[in-house]
């Protein structure tokens, strides 16, 4: 049995608008820069640990919704200071982040990037690795279960420390 060869598709000329590939470049760039910031500030932290994962997610979400330039290289100090201000309180950060994601839905943001960002916030809000009885949905993310001292609180606290390291070095 012979298989037919796959035909190469060039998105810019051969695909209709109905079949557009939605590459989450915005989210992937924010995710990459968040990892770089975290590794540089705390090189001993294992990417497999919970603290790394929640801090990485908080930094990536903050950069994504604040539209921080995420090109390779250094994030400008003014942007780091702005991000640091957003992380002053985990409750305020969560409200700001959830509201900003809602605004992104009506803006010019790739649907796949937005889906990944909402998924990250949903995961942070779930904080299922920290067991508590009060499971209220703090930021109104559909289907999320929130634990008050869960992943977002730890991530925001550690993200502030990461940004402080970078700001001190500037």
Task: Characterize the structure shown.
This protein is mainly α and 170 residues long. It has one domain (22-168). The chain has helices at 11-14, 25-41, 50-65, 77-86, 90-105, 111-126, 151-168. It is globular, with a radius of gyration of 18 Å. The termini are far apart. The model is unreliable at 11-16 and 128-136 (pLDDT under 50).
Helix and strand topology:
Elements (H helix, E strand, L loop, with lengths): L10 H4 L10 H17 L8 H16 L11 H10 L3 H16 L5 H16 L24 H18 L2
Characteristic key phrases:
170 residues
Overall 3D form = globular
Average pLDDT level: 78
Q: What sequence of helices (H) and strands (E) makes up the elements? A: HHHHHHH
Strand content: under 5%
Number of domains: 1
Q: Uncertain regions: pLDDT < 50 for 5+ in a row?
A: 11-16, 128-136
The end-to-end span amounts to 64 Å
Helix content: 55-70%
Tell me briefly what this model is.
The chain has 170 residues and is an all-alpha fold.
């Amino acid at each position: 049995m012979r298989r037919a060869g796959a035909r190469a598709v060039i998105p810019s000329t051969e695909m209709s608008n109905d079949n557009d590939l939605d590459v989450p470049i915005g989210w992937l760039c924010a995710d990459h820069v968040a990892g770089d910031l975290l590794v540089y500030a705390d090189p001993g932290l294992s990417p497999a640990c919970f603290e790394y994962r929640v801090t990485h997610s908080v930094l990536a979400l903050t950069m994504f919704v604040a539209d921080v330039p995420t090109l390779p290289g250094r994030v400008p100090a003014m942007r780091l200071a702005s991000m640091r201000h957003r992380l002053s309180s985990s409750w305020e950060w969560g409200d700001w982040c959830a509201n900003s994601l809602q605004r992104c839905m009506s803006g010019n943001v790739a649907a796949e990037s937005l889906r990944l960002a909402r998924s990250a916030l949903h995961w942070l809000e779930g904080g299922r690795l920290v067991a508590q009885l009060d499971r209220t949905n703090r930021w109104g993310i559909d289907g999320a279960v929130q634990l008050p001292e869960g992943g977002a609180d730890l991530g925001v606290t550690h993200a502030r420390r990461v940004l402080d390291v970078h700001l001190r070095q500037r």
